[in-house]
Structure formats: C-alpha cells, structure tokens
Amino acid sequence: MRRVMFTYFTSDPSSKALCSPMLLSTFSHFSLFHMAANMYVLWSFSSSVVSLLGCEQFIAVYLSAGVISTFVSYVAKMATGRFEPSLGASGAIMTVLAAVCTKMPEAKLAIIFLPMFTFTAGSALKAIIAFDTAGLALGWRLFDHAAHLGGALFGMWYVTYGHELIWKNREPLVKAWHEMRTKNTGKGGGGRSN
C-alpha cells in the first residue's frame, strides 16, 4: 500500500494519470450516510458560494479543493504511517463551508436536528478547525481530519486572496466564453440562455 500511495507524489513519465485519483476522490464517499451528510451541507451552502463566485469559478474551486484536500490527506497519512483511502469529497465540502463562513462570518447557522441553537458562521468555522486540528494531532479516526483541514484552509485562502490572485487573470476568458455562448444562443445555436 505504501508504494501505491507514493506513486501519487512521483513524476514518473510512465504514469498516465498522476492526479486523476485525487480528482476522482472528490466524488467518493465512505457510506450512504457520508454522502447524504455531504450533499446536505453542499445543498445548504452552495447557493451562497455560487452567488459569491459564479458558476464557473465555483466548479473550478470545488474540483481544485478536492485535489488539494486529498493531497493534504495523503501527506498526513504518509507522515503518520496510516495507509487508508482518502476521500476528497469532505475536503471539497469543507472548502465550500469555509468560503461562506469566511465571507459571511456573522451569518446565523443552526444544526439540522437542533434548530433552536444558533451560532455565527465565524464561530462554527473556528470550532470545526479546532475539532479537526485536535483530531489530526490526537490521531482520531472518526473523520479524515487532514482532508477537512486542507479543504477549510484552502476555502479561507481562496475567498481572501485566491480570487484576486488566480481568477481575476482568467476573467476576460470567461467573459469571452459568455459572449460567444450568448451569440450562439441568439442565432438558434441550440444553447441555453441564462
């Protein structure tokens, strides 16, 4: 197993898919409950993040977050000698959650089964980071704490700095894509209008 996980970090030219396992893990879940919980959080926070970033940027950030959180998980597992699968879906979901909580720290949140207890998004993010840091430091195996931390830190970084550093340089390309799509839609090109 050690050899298999190590191949993700090598640059062997014979390997045709270095990052594809990390990208595909963005859609991997441990169980149906894991998938249901992740999809509920994604459903709850995705509209806010899409309104902040736009559809194209959201998809790019989500897929990048899956790869980054899986990579962080692999590094942590290699460092601790625990060779278990890494599922990047939770890390990507944590990116979405952290992005919203960073941009809207005063928003009120509640737990689905305890709606009477509310707390701010900023407090929730601090609690989640503290929980996952403790889990990583103490070796808890309840969640993939390294993937959660990698996703949360990436989400916080992206909405604070990454948008300006990365996306602003690609904005003209996205605008040209939208203009081309709008022209094709207007000519009966079969495309959908927004």
UniProtKB/TrEMBL annotation:
<dbReference type="GO" id="GO:0005743">
    <property type="term" value="C:mitochondrial inner membrane"/>
</dbReference>
<keyword id="KW-0378">Hydrolase</keyword>
<keyword id="KW-0809">Transit peptide</keyword>
<feature type="transmembrane region" description="Helical">
    <location>
        <begin position="49"/>
        <end position="75"/>
    </location>
</feature>
<keyword id="KW-1133">Transmembrane helix</keyword>
<dbReference type="GO" id="GO:0004252">
    <property type="term" value="F:serine-type endopeptidase activity"/>
</dbReference>
<dbReference type="InterPro" id="IPR022764">
    <property type="entry name" value="Peptidase_S54_rhomboid_dom"/>
</dbReference>
<feature type="transmembrane region" description="Helical">
    <location>
        <begin position="111"/>
        <end position="131"/>
    </location>
</feature>
<dbReference type="GO" id="GO:0006465">
    <property type="term" value="P:signal peptide processing"/>
</dbReference>
<comment type="similarity">
    <text>Belongs to the peptidase S54 family.</text>
</comment>
<feature type="domain" description="Peptidase S54 rhomboid">
    <location>
        <begin position="22"/>
        <end position="162"/>
    </location>
</feature>
<keyword id="KW-0999">Mitochondrion inner membrane</keyword>
<protein>
    <recommendedName>
        <fullName>rhomboid protease</fullName>
        <ecNumber>3.4.21.105</ecNumber>
    </recommendedName>
</protein>
<dbReference type="Pfam" id="PF01694">
    <property type="entry name" value="Rhomboid"/>
</dbReference>
<dbReference type="InterPro" id="IPR035952">
    <property type="entry name" value="Rhomboid-like_sf"/>
</dbReference>
<keyword id="KW-0812">Transmembrane</keyword>
<keyword id="KW-0496">Mitochondrion</keyword>
<keyword id="KW-0472">Membrane</keyword>
<feature type="transmembrane region" description="Helical">
    <location>
        <begin position="21"/>
        <end position="43"/>
    </location>
</feature>
<dbReference type="InterPro" id="IPR050925">
    <property type="entry name" value="Rhomboid_protease_S54"/>
</dbReference>
